Structures are given as structure tokens and as C-alpha cells.
Amino acid sequence: MLTRVSDVIHSRLADIQASLTASCSAESADGTVHAEASAKRQLALRLSPAAMRMRPDDLAALILTTQHEAQSKAEAAISETLDTFRADPRVAVALDNLRDTQASPPPPSRQVAEPDDEDDADFVSIYGDDRER
Question: 19-102 has which CATH code?
């Protein structure tokens, strides 16, 4: 069965969209902090009871580090999906064609309207009638 390029591109774009919202997680080495994130935002944060015994500055740093790790994993996943998308030769040709079209679009068509004497007869100026009678 022959697959159309547009179907492949739409399928790959759906994969990219899904990876934008996919969740990745990370956990601190001691297990006190667990974070989940997508490539776009933080989704969840769980702290163990042991986290409450940590110094506030240490806990804050551990939370930020763990959240960053989760988001980095999600961003890496979308980068991999984008690389796969770009690696498909059919997609690459379509993207090249799109880039070339955008780089040198055809000039806009110029359609100059010819004045129509009949339309001018119905024209009424708000500044008074300055036509010869």
C-alpha cells in the first residue's frame, strides 16, 4: 500500500504533539523528591516524609534540581522525536520545498481596476459637487 507524504507528515506531527505533553519523571538520589514534567511545564512534585527534615535551602535546591532533570528528559524526548521527523526523507523533501517557497514566494498578482464611468455617475462627494454641469 502506497502511503501519501501528507499522511506521513500528519502522523509524524501527531507524534510531536504527543511528545509535547508526554510526562517524564526524575527522582533525587536519596528518594526524597520525585518530579514529573512535560517539555512545556512541571506536572507534579512529591516529597517523602524525610524531605520535611531537610534544611529549607537544601530541600529547595534538591527540588529545583529534580524538576530540572525531569524537564530535561522531556525536552530530550521531543528532540529525539523531531530528529526522527526530520530524518524521514519524504518529510525532508517537503520541508525543503516549503523553505524554498517561503524564501522566494511568487510576486503578488497586480490587478488594476479600470475606472468605470458609469460608477462615477452615482458618486456623491461629501465636499459638494465639483463636477461641471
Answer: 3.30.1310.10
